[in-house]
Design goal:
globular; single chain
């Protein structure tokens, strides 16, 4: 069973992946070398997409696996099935396939799949960044893509295909035309198509195939007949061989018809001449998608010889190995369909028992998803409900939404309308992006609760609270802010919240509510930067949490982090620091980085605002070190902390370290950044301004500003306006500079922003703006919108921030204490060791050594090894 074990990846919540789905099929013993197809396949490494399309049984999988093995191609393989219509599961397998070839690929993109507001564009962007770092040509093979019917998966694959690095190639095998646009690729010469006419056996190949399996050479008339009847269909030829071997010499001469009927006819001929015990074995085990000896024994109720499955494979009875050890197999899809059809005709009364036995075996072996599939088909509805509820929380967290939704829809109404299953349907719909009102579900829920006794109703107390939380979440998703606040107000004022062991679904999941937004209030959970509304909501939320003692649950970390950001912007630093520290503590306990990282950033900014620059840098570095000890060590969260470190370097005047960061970030070279890179984009723009590359900074700032306005991201809009004001100031366009600053101040006063102007910093711009206002140089900025008291408040705050760190104090705070590991690395570079030698000495990955060096350079404010050694010598650090 080893090859069927679940595997997981570092950098993300463990996801149950089956290694058999990543196995590249081995070449069958009866393989016919097909030179013209191998030649066509060789173009796969020169084209973006290779597409093999034909009905079943034409050898698509065989030719691709033969080419991969024969040419020793660097290939990742995913054998798709119906469950891969879940977007997260599909991409988890794709990333796993790449990771097998190049360990570490996708470790930043995988955690994004855990986000409750998951964006496939964002995840694929990180994956593409990793793939750009791969040396050499790589091909990803997706087999049986016709099983994918999810529009979301199709769109995500098209998005990936459009952005693949040039050394990455894609090969797709399907029974149907690809449901994503490929016309442009065809015009550009980037599409390698292999169709039915290419895959058909020629007479020469039929003869060779026949000889390989029988040792005989068919006569000319037999060969012609075989070619005419099968029309070069590989599976048909194989069936004809099996019929011939079983003694049916003239089978084909009695038959006319299309491939489907040929298959049924020939398979029936083959099946009728098998020993009865083997025939029954094939029929009964056909209900399985994958089979091994132990599982087959349970299903048939008989002892199964250890080598039976391998013997069936060697007999060419359409049994395909799924691993290298010969433990797991599956039937050829066409043969499985035929066997199941015959099973229904001959032994329909056994179907329910077979599925029930399979369900029990899968459940006993911890393969709950497979157990559910068979329980549903086997009519064990109560068991299916129990299994679904046992795994539902995990599936919601892992975003296996399509599969969970399908299961729930398969349940008959009396079961599906139970309160516990209704709430699962609600969350499944919401997390799939269906944001319509929940009125229909509320009515169904109320009807389901009416006939229950008091004791039964008490059992569903937690589910009732789930419904309230779902309604609040739905209102936030559709930006019905008034309703979201009203629902939270009603919840906060209630005194009848039950004390339940399992808190409501969203409260207890511990899933990521943050899709890498920093600050947290920039996203929908912070009402897209509507600071006043966000404060009202989160103060109310705070009351609810405190009143009911929900102080140590994952959702509390998000609320504390959001409110700490709000208080920071209000310059309420004492309260902000307390909230940030609470968020950090809870988030570390719950492993929710979506709250941890924003809270750490707030804490560091408070120290900086108080003039403790060294402590501010240390907070960031210690958080990065902590993440290195967690499954998030490869994740984007470390990059976000690094980005805040860059902002501090800019404030220090450490431009060399900031420039080095910009040279190495992958998004700095992309032209189609998505909205989820806003924090890094804004930081990059500030670095570019410092480098006097104002035209590039201007282009990105304008693009970001327009995106922010379209999506209603107020905080991003404000920051982009400040960047544009600085850019126009650098260009000498004072009039345009003042207009952008005026617009930013209008937003700031309307929403209550304060510290953002001090953090930018914008003191020199504010002084000029005040001068313009005072002397009425620009009528445009005299219009109502920015009050004098607000301007004075912002100017005083910016001035205080500027004065908080005089040059002498700044010099003293430049050197942040090095960690013990960083001191070791510093000592070894002083001894002249290379990165590789340091990695070997300290038993580290070379990439980790580079990360330590990057931090050392930042802390010492140097640019390179020599300067680091000199600075360390001056400071007596080694």
């Amino acid at each position: 069973m080893s090859q069927y074990n679940q595997i997981s990846h570092p950098g993300a919540t463990p996801y149950p992946l089956l290694s058999t789905k990543l196995y590249i099929p081995k070449q069958p013993s009866y393989l016919v070398t097909r030179e013209h197809l191998l030649k066509k396949m060789s173009w796969a490494m020169k084209r973006k997409l290779t597409l093999l399309t034909s009905p079943p049984g034409f050898g698509k999988t065989t030719i691709v696996s033969h080419w991969v093995h024969n040419e020793q191609i660097n290939a990742g393989w995913v054998s798709l099935d119906q469950g891969d219509n879940d977007l997260m599961r599909f991409w988890s397998y794709v990333i796993a396939a790449f990771d097998r070839l190049h360990p570490g690929v996708g470790h930043k993109s995988l955690p994004l799949l855990q986000s409750i507001s998951f964006s496939f564009e964002q995840m694929i962007g990180w994956l593409v960044n990793d793939l750009f770092e791969i040396d050499g040509e790589v091909i990803l093979v997706l087999d049986d893509y016709h099983l994918i019917v999810s529009e979301e998966v199709h769109r995500s694959l098209a998005f990936f295909l459009d952005r693949m690095p040039p050394q990455i190639h894609l090969c797709i095998m399907s029974r149907q035309q690809l449901p994503i646009p490929v016309g442009t690729l065809r015009v550009q010469g980037e599409l390698n198509e292999i169709g039915l006419s290419d895959l058909k056996f020629s007479e020469r190949e039929i003869s060779s195939f026949w000889h390989h399996q029988t040792g005989d050479v068919p006569g000319e008339s037999s060969l012609k007949l075989l070619s005419e009847r099968t029309e070069g269909w590989v599976a048909g030829v194989q069936l004809a061989v099996l019929s011939h071997v079983s003694g049916q010499q003239d089978t084909l001469s009695h038959f006319m018809g299309n491939h489907r009927y040929v298959a049924d006819y020939l398979m029936e001929e083959v099946l009728l001449h098998l020993p009865e015990r083997l025939r029954l074995f094939l029929l009964r085990t056909s209900v399985l998608e994958r089979l091994n000896t132990e599982l087959c024994a349970v299903l048939t109720g008989e002892q199964v010889e250890e080598g039976l499955l391998r013997e069936i494979e060697r007999s060419h009875l359409f049994l395909i190995p799924l691993d290298g050890e010969g433990q797991w197999f599956r039937y050829h899809h066409l043969f499985a369909d035929f066997l199941r059809s015959r099973l229904k005709q001959e032994r329909a009364e056994e179907l329910v028992t077979l599925h029930q036995r399979a369900s029990v075996w899968y459940e006993r072996h911890g393969l709950v998803r497979e157990a559910i599939e068979h329980a549903l088909v086997g009519g064990v509805t109560e068991k299916a409900c129990s299994l679904i509820q046992s795994i539902a929380t995990e599936m919601l967290k892992l975003r296996e939404l399509t599969t969970l939704h399908r299961w729930l829809k398969q349940l008959p109404d009396p079961f599906r309308h139970r309160p516990g299953l209704l709430i699962l349907q609600i969350w499944t719909e919401l997390l799939q992006g269906r944001k319509e009102p929940l009125d229909e579900y509320v009515i169904l829920f109320q009807k389901a609760m009416e006939p229950l006794s008091k004791e039964e109703a008490a059992h569903y107390a937690g589910v009732r609270e789930d419904l309230v939380v779902a309604q609040i979440y739905q209102a936030m998703l559709v930006a019905d802010n008034k309703r979201a606040y009203s629902l939270m107000e009603a919840l906060a004022m209630r005194e009848d919240i039950p004390e339940i062991a399992g808190l409501p679904m969203l409260f207890g999941l511990g899933m990521e509510l943050n899709d890498r937004i920093v600050p947290f209030t920039r996203g929908y959970y912070g009402f897209n930067g509507q600071l006043k509304l966000a404060e009202r909501y989160h103060r109310l939320y705070h009351t609810f949490i405190s009143n009911h003692h929900f102080d140590n649950f994952p959702f509390t970390a998000y609320q504390r982090a959001a409110l700490s950001e709000i208080c920071y912007e209000r310059n309420q630093l004492t309260e902000s620091l307390q909230l940030a520290e609470d968020a950090i503590r809870i988030a570390k306990q719950s492993s929710v980085c979506g709250a941890y990282v924003p809270a750490v950033i707030v804490r560091s900014k408070i120290y900086w605002a108080q003039g403790a620059e060294g402590e501010a840098l240390t907070v960031i570095c210690e958080a990065m070190d902590w993440l290195q000890q967690t499954p998030y060590r490869y994740s984007h969260w470390i990059d976000l902390l690094q980005t805040q470190l860059v902002r501090f370097w800019l404030l220090q005047g450490n431009t060399s370290a900031a420039n080095a960061w910009l040279d190495h970030v992958p998004w700095s070279k992309q032209q189609d950044w998505n909205d989820h890179h806003e924090f890094e984009m804004l930081t990059s723009i500030r670095v570019l301004i410092g480098k006097k590359e104002v035209q590039t900074a201007y282009t990105w700032s304008e693009r970001l500003l327009q995106k922010a306005k379209r999506s209603g991201r107020i905080l991003t809009e404000l920051e982009a306006l400040l960047c544009l004001a600085e850019i126009h100031h650098e260009r000498g366009n004072l009039h345009t500079c003042m207009l952008h600053l005026h617009e930013a101040l209008i937003i700031g006063e309307r929403e209550g922003y304060a510290r953002i102007f001090a953090d930018h910093p914008a003191e020199h711009l504010l002084s000029q703006y005040a001068e313009v206002r005072k002397n009425r140089y620009m009528p445009e900025v005299q219009t109502p919108g920015v009050s004098l008291p607000y301007l004075q408040q912002i100017m005083a705050l910016s001035s205080a921030t500027s004065l908080s760190g005089d040059p002498a104090a700044r010099d003293r705070s430049i050197v942040v204490p090095l960690t013990a590991r960083e001191q070791e690395v510093l000592q070894l570079i002083a001894e002249g060791l290379s990165n590789k030698a340091i990695a070997e000495r300290l038993v580290l990955a070379e990439g980790t050594v580079k990360l330590h060096l990057h931090r050392i350079y930042g802390k010492l404010q140097v640019n390179g090894r020599i300067q680091a050694i000199q600075k360390a010598s001056q400071l007596r650090l080694h």
